[in-house]
Amino acid sequence: MSAIEIGSFEDFEKYNGQELGASEYFQITQKQINLFADATYDHQWIHTEPEKAKTQGSFGNTIAHGYLTLSIVPHLWEQILKVNNLKMMINYGIENFRFAHPVLVTDQVRLVASLKSVVNLRGTVKAEVSVKLEIKDQKKPAFTGVLVFLYHFN
Fold first, then answer.
1. Cα angle vertex 124, ends 13, 93, to 5°?
2. What does pTM read for this prediction?
3. Which pLDDT score, from 0 to 100, does residue 31 have?
4. How many Å apart are CA 89 and CA 132, to the nearest integer?
5. How far apart are CA 3 and CA 129, in angstroms?
6. Which residues of the chain have pLDDT under 50?
7. How far apart are CA 102 and CA 61, in angstroms?
8. Which of 41, 89, 140, 142 is the most exposed place for a label (fewest CB within 10 A)?
9. Measured between alpha carbons, how far is 153 from 19 in angstroms, rounded to an integer?
């Protein structure tokens, strides 16, 4: 699936209340988990010690940090929506967010997004996007929530 192209508030309005699409699957690796642990100083063994996680953990392997799964949203989001004519985009908020299922090392995940609402605030477009991070071959998503973006068009 190719990304939807948006260049104005009017383009956004066409998708109000609709599913926007899904990204490609993205595999989580131990290297990514370790680099994220280094960046955030969160070296909890359920993330960074594979042998201990296999023998003493509840999941049978290391798991990605919840915030690591959230941090890949920009990469996956750009596969769903391409915004043209953009001066600036701001991450404005996260609402009703829940980490529902752990993402194990080597799991493949993809972002599924729907445009919950879009409002023109005197030239700034506020978009509320319902998201879920699906885990391949799992019924429960890794997370669900609403991301709020502010788009400033040229």
1. 90
2. 0.94
3. 98
4. 21
5. 15
6. none
7. 11
8. 41
9. 22
The predicted-structure confidence for 32-69, as pLDDT tens digits, reads as follows 999 999 999 999 999 999 999 999 999 999 999 999 99
Tokens 């080597």 appear where? 106
Contact criterion met (CB below 8 Å) for 113 and 129: yes
The residues, any chain, with a CB within 8 Å of residue 69's CB and separated by 6 or more, are 28, 99, 103, 109, 133, 142, 143
Bridge partners (DSSP) of residue 148 are 93, 128
**Tokens read off for 153:** 């068009």
Question: Which segments of the chain are extended strands (E)?
Answer: 4-6, 19-22, 26-27, 81-83, 86-99, 108-121, 124-135, 143-153
Q: Give me the pLDDT at residue 148, please.
A: 98
